[in-house]
Amino acid sequence: MHSNSKGEILNAGRVTSPRCRNVPHRPGVQAIDISETMLPAPGCRSADGPLLNAWFELNYRLQEEASDTHINKTFIERWIVRLWNIVSPRPQCFWLFLARMNELALLCASKYVDCCEFAAADELLVHPNSIFLYIDWGREAVFRGNEGKRGCIPAEINPGPLMSCLYRLLMESGYITEDYLHSISYRTYKINRVAAMLKELGMAGTEKIAVKLSCMNIDERRDFQSRLCLFDRRTFNEIGRALHLFMLSGRVDAEYVGKYLRG
Hints:
This protein is mainly α. It has helices spanning 49-65, 73-84, 91-114, 118-125, 162-173, 178-200, 206-214, 218-226, 234-249, and strands at residues 8-14, 27-34. It has a two-stranded antiparallel ribbon with strand order 1-2.
């Protein structure tokens, strides 16, 4: 791994999906790892050191496993269940991690729509999701407060579309910034708008998109591509870095953590 002056290790690459190779995607950051020198020294770790170490590993593991070939509804649901059943060193860690799951849901739905896989997108956007039926809402909270007090997840929500449930949980947590919540709403709106546009054009798959693109001149092709979602992994990666930095310092700085977490 190679790190820059800020301790970031970035591998730039093109975000593409094997299921929609004819749809161009903007270059994006595919991995953000933190150099080992940024980990707290053993003598400086809190009493929750083992728990924090487990969460550093959990954050890395999600980064490694969340490749474009793995991201789908089942993958996201499994990680949500996994998150719900572990203890968090601080409530903020739980909500930042859930925000990463929300980013994967947005990325997955947007790529389905860009590839005209509308039924798959509807599984995330429209159809009620059963995953929250299997979560024990009555159990004690999944995180511990600063003084060992245990907190609570917001009240049980009625099963709805996965993305709607994730948004509501983040919104009602009280920990997530308004700017980030607005960005979720905007991107969800864009996904629905792009889906409506492609359906209106009679697009039923990437083959039809490829045919349409082949009949366009360069300017027309650029205009059409600009109307697609073409989301990248930048925000997913940034929240992963914010979580890492928050676990290191416990502070909400304006440059990184404060973009997503309220101070």
